[in-house]
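Protein fold
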Amino acid sequence: MITDFDTLHDCRDAFVSTLENLASENNQIVAVCNDSVGSSKLGGFRDKWPERLVNVGIAEQNMVGVGAGLANGGKIPFVCAASCFLTGRALEQIKADVAYTHANVKLCGISSGMAYGELGPTHHSIEDFAWTRVLPGITIVAPADPSETKGAVEFAANHDGPVFLRLSRVGVPNIFDSNHRFVAGKANTIRPGQDLTIIANGTLTHRAFQAAELLAKQGIEARVINMATLSPIDIDTIVSAATETGAIVTCEEHSVHGGLGSAIAEVVVQQCPVPMKILGVPGVFAPTGSANYLLDEFGMSATGISEAAHQLFYNKGKKRIA
């Protein structure tokens, strides 16, 4: 499916271009940010509709509250901020003002995961899946490429209810063509395979695909699933993968606790127990370093993922799951 791993794209560009297109057709769409016009790439939106962008300054709790108020007034607010501050500093407002009241707010976590790299642990957002996934009623999406980002933004604008879009600034290759149709709650199998399954989302999907290509050279055919929607999760696809391939590796730009791997494990352990390996940040504060460097260091290079999958494949026949 992926033919060019060298040409990388910033999904924020797809985010803002889609948002502007939607806003030109629907004047109820507004943007709210926390002094992050630049990092959210909202400059064009501001220039076209200055009256439809609210910049609250560095006040994330107020920002989410303003978003909820705009939603209650019939607007469709896209609340944009660095994911670490949006989900960490304003978690109570996300819980009480957005999730509890089912407000029609679109939370846009910009530069998620370890995208801020050199700014270190205070700016890494490797807990945001866990914090938002536990709140009822929020659709959580981590798109893997520009086409999926476009589809996710279109979905968010038309969905009646809270959405958390987890968007990175780390470059990714095109995985899907321009005709790709994003469906919330539905995963995509981007590579067939029967020996084991690798499940990823966001910045890790293309690495999972590369890992499967490496495994194929060793005679192991890995199924690769892009699980863009974390909540609601695609239970049927997970159960089919576990049943048909017998082992699952997950990889994510997030802590190993509470994120994609945990969500999949919750399904697997209750419905179809099989051996699993959860790759991510292993319960530590990720140090300073570029996102790609840190992913490699935590075993999520294409080679690292393939090695973990290789070991799981050869061990799965030795493990007995009660």
